[in-house]
Write a structure and sequence with these properties.
By secondary structure, the protein is an alpha+beta fold. Helix content is 52%, strand content 18%. This is Diguanylate cyclase.
Length: 805
């Protein structure tokens, strides 16, 4: 069955009553409409001028922010002074104007000369604008309008100062933004108003014979044309805004609303008659629906339904209401689930929520936040002062500054890191981020919502990272980077008084070459401990790198420094348990009127240290090698006897071979030191009773190279370094380490090779028994020409046979 709509019922009743009034309505409308519409157009024109002013104000504010931001850069200040091209390359690229939506940027020095102008290549208007604004009369920042060649510009002028505002201005920054007049033509789309802005002289203002609120206008039946004069940046009334309002249908519709108010009064009598009929078929059903909705509002029970029998629109509306309530119930369920997810997320991340009501001075603290900061209280609301009292004293003032900045409108967002202290004194670092979510009619913040995250672990990691970046990994002392930072501070403080002590470890290279870098690192750590024990707590000790250390001593006299130097040397001399002599070269210097920079003071201290090193280094190296030789004898009880036998046999063989005294002296020294490199071989290999493995033998063979490096480190022994290196080379070229052949092998090395091999064969070792002379002679003859020099073997056997007889 077809539904009879309510509007049809109302139409049937109303039409019968309205027909007599149509004639009267037509006459009233005709006489009153024209005046109303004209008044409506005038009011719309006023609002359109306000809209134009708002657009101009917005653009002027944008230009103000940009010009003041650029003008307060220290880089801009220095650019006007120095005209540094790096500033142009870094800040004034080809797309800078486009990104800032500007026509031009002009940098002018204090004398009015243009330092640099960045402007649109197609519309060059910089000089015209500068000539128009009279830059020589500018005393303070200014923003305003200019019209040039039919175009409207917003011009901003600011004095240039550095970012700290300590210096006076050295010039001006002018920025120019083209204000496209077509921007205002949006008024035509909204209220059918056309806009034009031009120099006031181009409008015949006297033709506008009517004046209202500084607006001159004239009108006809179709439109209102109005003009308002604006001041340019110089304060002159030379810019005119013209608006033409053609009116629109909206005005007619609003007039009809006004007209119908009067018309309804005439219909009251008819409505009274119609009420009985409407009440029966419409109003009772409408009241039932209305009562049901009110009950839903009070009870908030959106699971209920309403039933309105019938087939009219009220029945359909009731069905739609039931459907709407069902959808709301589903949506509410989704909101509940979303809220639960949010709460679980906050619990999972352990983040806290802080809600600050500014005027009420009330801070809401979520349970998660109370747990985070150790706030043992049942209440969730505290005052701002009570909350800040939980902040670490060193952070409280900074936190208040952040809040005052956001409350005073300087920022929309809040972002700060600070420390909270619970009732037990435990400290928690938090990251506090928030935003203004409510403002009053004056734009002042009413409410700030924030989240707080526990960043204690991150802060600890950052502190550890900072410590490591300024520490030497091996010794735990400060490093070069830290000292450079200290030196910068000293150079910036002319009144500071200090000494710089330079220290250099003697013989570190010998130790590294002999015992390996692990032992060298152990030596450096020992030196670091000596320096730490010798210095007072406020002295700064640093390892510069390698074998160099530096000590910075402030506010102490030279007597302290001399005593410190003696104390360090005494501690080095008193060390025991080392296979080598531990010593340091030391030099110091102080800041004077002539040497006031740390780099110069350190250079002088380094020079004095180097002189000290030259006087002690050679004796230190010799003492170190003697110590190493003693260590070798202690490591292997047979080595000293072996060395004595080789020395005696080598001298006999050398004399038989006709060596001069110089060579005999070298041979004697070589017989003592040829196995010095074994001091660097691990004892488990050197003293192993059985056969060496391939890997162990490879280590054992390195003793020739270790011995070479030890000898090279001292001028007393460097002349036999090559002989030490080659004393295990073979005559046929199959020896080690370099595979030398024949007479490529130094003569003294060939002598030691023969004598050493004979002594090893004829004397007992941990890994073998001694062989008799017959066996030794046989081996020497068989290896002659392969392992040994044949001539040397022959002469050596002759010596041995003579000794037997």
């Amino acid at each position: 069955m077809k539904i009879i709509k309510i509007k049809y019922k109302a139409i049937v009743i109303t039409v019968l009553s309205v027909i007599p009034l149509i004639g009267v309505t037509d006459i009233i409308f005709e006489h009153s409409y024209s005046g109303y519409v004209n008044n409506r157009k005038l009011e719309e024109t006023k609002k359109s001028f306000d809209a134009v002013s708002d657009v101009i104000t917005k653009e002027q504010n944008s230009v103000t922010r940009t010009v003041e931001d650029w003008a307060k850069w220290t880089d801009t200040y220095e650019f006007i002074t120095n005209s540094d091209k790096k500033y142009i390359a870094s800040n004034l690229q080809d797309d800078t104007l486009k990104n800032l939506d500007l026509q031009a940027m002009i940098f002018i020095n204090k004398s009015g000369k243009i330092v640099y102008a960045k402007e649109d290549k197609e519309k060059k208007i910089s000089k015209d604008i500068i000539n128009s604004v009279h830059i020589e009369n500018i005393k303070k920042n200014r923003v305003g309008l200019m019209v040039q060649n039919g175009n409207l510009y917003v011009v901003g002028i600011s004095t240039v100062t550095p970012s700290d505002n300590q210096n006076i201005s050295n010039g001006f920054l002018i920025i120019i933004k083209h204000l496209d007049i077509s921007t205002f033509n949006i008024l035509k789309r909204l209220v059918n108003v056309e806009a034009d802005i031009e120099e006031a002289s181009k409008f015949n203002i006297s033709s506008y014979d009517k004046l209202v609120e500084n607006i001159r206008y004239k009108q006809d039946k179709e439109s209102i044309e109005a003009v308002k004069v604006l001041k340019n940046i110089n304060g002159d009334d030379v810019i005119a805004v013209k608006l033409i309002n053609f009116g629109d249908k909206k005005a007619v519709n609003e007039y009809f609303i006004l007209f119908n108010i009067h018309f309804i009064i005439l219909l009251i009598a008819i409505i009274a008659i119609d009420f009985i009929v409407l009440n029966k078929y419409s109003l009772k059903r409408l009241k039932k629906l209305n009562d049901f909705i009110e009950e839903i509002i009070v009870s908030k029970d959106i699971t209920r339904t309403i039933s309105l029998p019938g087939k009219d629109e009220y029945a359909m509306f009731a069905a739609l209401t039931n459907r709407m309530l069902k959808e709301l119930n589903l949506a509410y369920k989704g909101m509940r689930e979303q809220n639960e997810r949010f709460m679980m997320l906050m619990e999972a991340t352990n983040d806290g929520v802080l809600d600050y009501s500014v005027k009420e001075d009330r801070v809401y603290i979520s349970n998660e936040l109370k747990q985070l900061i150790g706030f043992n209280s049942e209440k969730n609301y505290v005052s701002e002062r009570e909350y800040v009292s939980r902040v670490h004293l060193e952070c409280a003032e900074r936190l208040r500054e952040h809040y005052h900045n956001i409350i005073n409108g300087n920022s929309e967002y809040f972002n700060a890191e600070y420390r909270m202290i619970d009732q037990l004194g435990n400290i928690t670092w938090v990251l506090h981020r928030g935003k203004i979510v409510g403002k009053d009619e004056n734009g002042k913040p009413l409410r700030i919502i924030s989240t707080l995250v526990n960043i204690t672990d991150r802060k600890k990691y950052e502190e550890e990272t900072l410590f490591l970046s300024y520490s030497d990994k091996l010794t735990g002392l400060r490093n070069r980077s830290y000292m450079e930072k200290q030196f910068q501070a000293l150079d910036s403080s002319p009144k500071s008084q200090y000494y710089i002590v330079m220290c250099d470890v003697n013989g570190l290279k010998v130790v590294n070459d002999t015992f390996g870098h692990k032992e060298g690192d152990h030596l450096l750590c020992t030196i670091a401990n000596i320096l730490t024990e010798s210095c007072e707590q406020d002295d700064i000790i640093s390892r510069l790198g390698g074998d160099e250390f530096i000590i910075l001593i402030e506010d102490k006299d030279e007597e302290y420094v001399k005593n410190l130097q003696d104390k360090i040397k005494i501690k080095c001399d008193s060390l025991f348990g080392y296979k080598y002599k531990v010593s340091m070269a030391i030099g110091y210097a102080s800041k004077t009127e002539e040497i006031s920079e740390t780099e110069l003071v350190m250079g002088l201290a380094d020079l004095r240290m180097y002189r000290n090193k030259l006087t002690e280094e050679e004796s230190t190296r010799s003492a170190t090698i003697e110590s190493l030789l003693n260590t070798l004898h202690e490591k292997h009880s047979e080595t000293e006897e072996h060395t004595v036998r080789i020395k005696e046999l080598s001298i006999q063989l050398g004399e038989k071979l006709g060596l001069n005294q110089e060579k005999l002296d070298e041979l004697k020294l070589l017989s003592l030191l040829h196995d010095i490199g074994k001091v660097g071989i691990p004892e488990n290999i050197l003293m192993k009773p059985g056969k060496l493995t391939v890997e162990e033998w490879a280590i054992m063979k390195t003793h020739t190279q270790i011995g070479y490096r030890i000898a090279k480190s001292s001028s007393d022994f460097s002349h036999i370094a090559n002989e030490i290196l080659a004393h295990h080379e073979r005559y046929d070229g199959t020896g080690y380490p370099n595979g030398l052949k024949g007479e490529e092998i130094p003569l003294l090395s060939r002598i030691i090779n023969v004598v050493d091999s004979f002594d090893v064969m004829t004397n007992k070792r941990a890994y073998k028994e001694a062989f008799n002379l017959e066996y030794a002679f046989k081996e020497l003859n068989e290896c002659s020409g392969t392992q040994f020099d044949p001539y040397i073997v022959k002469e050596f056997i002759d010596i041995l046979q003579e000794n037997i007889r």
